[in-house]
Structure formats: structure tokens, C-alpha cells
Amino acid sequence: MYVKHIELKNYRNYLEVNLDFKNHLILFLGQNGSGKTNLLESIYYLANGRSHRVASSSDLVNFKSDYAIIRAIIEIENKENLFEIQIHKDGAVKLRFNKLYIKNKQNMFKKLAVVIFSPDDLSMIKSSPSFRREYIDGILAKVQNDFYNIKSRYQKILIQRNSLLKSASNNSLDKLCVKNTFETWDENLAKEGSKLIKARINLLQSLKPKFLRYMNYFFKDSKASLNYVFSWERVNFGDEDEKSGNDNLIYLSKENISGEDRSKNSLTKTGLTNDSFNNKEIIYNVFKEKLNYYFKKDIGVKSSTIGPHRDDLLITLDNKDLRYFGSQGQQRIAAICLRLAEIEILVERINDKPLLLLDDVLSELDIERKKLLLNLIKNNFQTFITTANYDYINDIELKNCQKFFVEDNSIKLFKK
User: Cβ-count burial of 103 within 10 angstroms (0-12 exposed, 13-18 middle, 19+ buried)?
Assistant: First the structure.
């Protein structure tokens, strides 16, 4: 996968930009706030149909215009393809692939694979579980054709169950019709939820050894671990923890924060063992049982307190939960290792190499770790890097690198 040309019109701070890329390594230099990240964002949008920074696509349109255009020529499997996205101020988005309009967004966005490294990745380690779920679900959306539909069905059922919980009262639960209604929704929630959980666990089995190998690459004398945590293994959690990452989340036992011991022992608390990972029926039965067990709590808080929408990933280094006990540097490297593992998964599953976007990440690493990371990437992938540090290009050998200077809402080849 290789971007040969990109054109932006009325996109963010750029009224009109046309760039040709001739190298595997592209560096954008410029002061903070000059618009370097906007360039990477446009490439990310081409692959995902959304920004990694804002929720509304209309925010991407230049304030002086009613629409924005992202257009790119991208080589996939030795064939040039034209991608075009038109974003309107009212939120409407039109897609064209090789000059033909595309109605099904998934058909277009699954053609490209992009992995972005950004300072915000730190949230995957230190913030709420929603960031870690988004990470693993983002990979699944690229490598499993039916994952989007599975997650969508689960979320629709969850919304219906939560709506019923809000309208129900303790007095009404004695009525047979109400009980039967909840049983039906619980059955449907467990059915679709078990598919979602199984997809995540299957992916984690492939992802985990890759992540651990990279962690060992950066932390040679330390031992890391990555494990899936079911919502019913978590206690003292609520909506505020999910949204803001408050430090009031703990796990049920010491095994849960003790590396490999946890993966061997803690799942037996829910009736699941390592041999159950690929057994959707067992996951379904346990999920159904837990829905029944926590039903009174759900009625009390008017929300579904367990399910894959509350699951988490536990990342440890030397048996310590990195979320609470890791240094900023350790957390940053762990986030990078998650992205590196993601790259490997995509290479294996899509039979092509993804595009890499490094948004001011290397500047936060020491010189040795910068070199380690670039050594892993080398010329294996087309990589776009942003930095505001001009001395940075002298610290590291960037061979065959095409450099651009970003200033005053324009981009020029860097000739320094």
C-alpha cells in the first residue's frame, strides 16, 4: 500500500494542497499548530471514514467553505486507485472510488489499512477501558468482515435493554409479562455479546505474543503481560469510570494483576478456563448467568452493568498494572508496542502492508528508543512522520526521506 498523491481542498486550515510522494519515508516539519497533524488526519479519514481527533466530520471543513475534499491516488497490490471523499458542512459525506460513487461506506473503507501512532495513544494505557476496547475493536473492524454487524446488533439490543431498565420499577418486576420481556432481551444480549467477546478473545490470542515480543524488545529485563478482563471480573466501576478513567476501578483478586498467574487462575472464577476461550456456548452461558445475577443492580442503576461494553484489557509490566503503576515512559512504550502488534496483525490478515502515521511520537522518546522504533519500521512500510523539532532530523539517520516544510497554511519541499 503506497500513497502516491494527495489533494486537499478546504480541509481544515488548507484551502488547496497538492502533494506527490516518491519515498517510503515522508517527514513533515513545522511549528506546533501549523497543520502537520491535519495532513495525517486526512489520510486516516480515507481509511476509516472518521477523524481520530473529532467526532463530527463537519469540523474538518474550512470555516470559509461549505465543503471539503480529500482526494488521493493510492497503489494497492500494484494497482493505482483513486479515492475521493467530499465532506459537507451539514455533515453529509459522499464517497467515490475510481470515480464511481460508493453507497456502502464499509466497502470503501475496508480497502485501506492505516495505523496511527499519536500522543493520544497514551489513553489506551492510562485512561478508561473504553479506549482499550476501541483499540481492539478497531483492528477487528479491519480484519473480520462481519464484525461491524456483530457489534452493531449488540449495541442495538443493549440500547433496548437499557431503555426497558429505565422504565421498569421494582414493583413491576412481579408481573410475568415484564419478567418474560427481560428474559428475551437477556437471551438476545448474551447471544450477540458472546459473539463479540469471542471475536475479541480470538484476536487477543494472536495479538498477545506479538505485543509481548515488542515489550521485551524495549524492556529487555522486564516481564509484560496482556489479558482480557470480563466485566463481571471488575468491581466498583460505573459510568464515570468508563467516561473519565477515574482511579476507582479495581479487579477482584491478586491474580488479576499478577501477570501470567492471572491468565491461569482468574477465569475459573467465572466458569471460564483457557480451554473455553474459543467456546462461544460457554461464554454465552456464563454471560446469561451473570446477567441474571446482576439484574437487581441493573434495575437500581437503570443500566446494564455487565457485558462486552464494559470489558477491559489488563496490561502489566513486572506484575504491576501499567495503568496505575507505570511511569509515563513505560506507558508510552506500551502504547507503541500495541500499535506495532496491530501492524503485524494487519499484515497477516489483509495480505498487504498498512500505511503508518507517526504524529509527533518520536520526539517524546529518547534517542535510543527512537532508533529502535525506526529500525523496526525501516523501509517496510510507507511512513508519514510529523515533528516540530528541527534538530530531530540530525539526531536520527533518515535515509531516503522526503521532507516537507509546513508553514502559513501551505506545504513546501524542505531544502535545508
Answer: exposed
Instruction: End-to-end CA distance of the chain: give it in Å, rounded.
Output: 29
- Order of strands across the sheet that contains 114-117: 114-117, 355-359, 383-387, 25-29, 401-407, 410-413
pTM for the model: 0.84
pLDDT for the residue 176: 52
Q: Which three cell numbers stand for residue 385?
A: 512522520
Burial class (CB in 10 A: 0-12, 13-18, 19+), 382: buried
Residue among 309, 321, 329, 360 nearest 40 (CA): 360
> So what's the pLDDT on residue 259?
35
- CA 80 from centre of chain: 27
- Comparing 155-159, 187-191, 272-276, 334-338, the range with the smallest average pLDDT is 272-276
Give yes or no for a contact between 271 and 282, defined as CB atoms under 8 angstroms apart. Answer: yes
CB neighbours of 218 closer than 8 A, spacing ≥ 6?
333, 336, 337, 369, 372
**pLDDT tens, 266-322?**
333 444 544 555 678 899 999 999 999 999 889 889 999 999 999 999 999 999 999
H runs (alpha helix) in 294-391: 295-301, 322-325, 328-350, 367-377
Which residue in this structure is represented by grid cell 478508561?
128
Residues sharing a CB contact under 8 Å with residue 309, sequence separation 6 or more, in sequence order: 133, 154, 155, 158, 231
Q: Is the distance from CB of 218 to CB of 341 less than 8 angstroms? A: no
The percent helix, strand, coil of the chain (3-state, each to 5) is 50, 25, 25
| Contacts of 134 by beta carbon, 8 Å cutoff, 6+ apart | none
pLDDT at 179 over 80: no
Q: Is the pLDDT of residue 379 over 70?
A: yes
* Length reported for the chain: 416
- Here the cell at position 319 is 506484575
CB 252 within 8 A of CB 233: yes
- Which of 186-190, 279-283, 312-316, 381-385 has the least mean pLDDT? 279-283
**C-alpha grid cell for residue 192?**
450477540
